[in-house]
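re: that complex we talked abt at group meeting.

here r the seqs, copy pasted straight from the sheet so there may be weird spacing, ignore it
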Amino acid sequence: MHANILVLPGDGIGPEVTAAGVAVLRSVAERYGHDFHFEEQLIGGAAIDATGQPLPDATLQAAQRADAVLLGAVGGPKWSDPNAKVRPEQGLLAIRKALGLFANVRPVKPHSATLGASPIKAHLLQGVDLIVVRELTGGIYFGDKTRSNSDASDLCRYSVAEIERVVRHAAQLARSRSGKLTSVDKANVLETSRLWRDVTTRVVRDEFPDVQLEHQLVDSMAMHLLAKPRAYDVIVTENMFGDILTDEASMLAGSLGLLPSASLGAGTNGIYEPIHGSAPDIAGRGIANPYATILSAALLLRHSLGLEAEAQCVEKSVAEALDAGVFTADLTTTQPAASTHAATDAVLARMDLACAAVALRD
Ligand code: NAD
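got the structure back, here u go
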């Protein structure tokens, strides 16, 4: 198939990890006979430096033309003044909103070889395989803001339609897995959460009667996620709760460097990015963990291009590199660490066998 893939390296380690993702996608194209066309544009701090804008028009237009977007990360100390008029994260929020990407999907499946890298006890992590679906374009992050010398406010607002579409997305996902959906809110205190709960209950009852829905308050969810993570399959929640819970969930996997994400909307275009930031503390040293970005490329193959076997091949290749003990510095303190290049090469080197195994499984 032919596909236009927009690459937005961004800042810090972004260029290092997106290069790894592109190398793997090129290898997939070669193996399976696809024609992937890559275009690169600026976003975040790099875009502010070059154009004064975190999301230049050329980037937005390229994203709207593309079949999928692979993004590194944005931000860094150079642009971190919270009072600055333009900030790198504005580029991210704006591109998600412009593309109508309302569901951020973050799978968390700790790998057996890296259980030791998590601060959580290994026996609690075995068998964990959950997906958090976070609402991405509504809620308190996008509501009106006020600030005076004596106070400040952030408005949290949700419409029925905004809740319905993300709940449908999550329920569909739950249906394709174990059929279990957990909706997280704060309905004992917040009006937006009471609406969230009512709409979720109705959508699942009327449209997904085969899906088993439970409601969980966000404070107890924060606790249960660490105490019994195996109990969850698909979790759906609003923007800010999802932001916090997904960072917490990342600790189950041991390192931010292992977790991919997909931001999806009603169509097939999506933005695929590791959940970590631009890691300015290690940028430019060639030691960043590329696995999260490579796994994000697998999500791109699956969700935007509909290439399931190719996605599984990439995921299997990463799993086998981890099985073989190819660990970057964030994953080990006891053995010599692999560089970004070495970890990427370890994945590429396993693709022949992994793709063949996936083909046999099908
Ligand atoms: P971070 O995720 O960049 O880094 C947190 C820690 O994890 C650091 O010690 C870093 O070295 C390590 N780390 C992260 N990714 C890694 C990888 N792939 N391999 C090895 N180690 C890795 O979070 P932060 O330090 O809070 O933020 C740094 C900058 O990134 C800030 O400007 C922040 O605003 C931005 N940020 C961007 C995004 C995004 O682009 N989506 C997300 C979070 C933070």
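couple things i noticed - Residues 13, 17, 73-76, 80, 89, 92, 256-257, 273, 276-282, 288-289, 292, 328, 330 surround nicotinamide-adenine-dinucleotide (CB under 6 Å). The longest helix spans residues 14-32.
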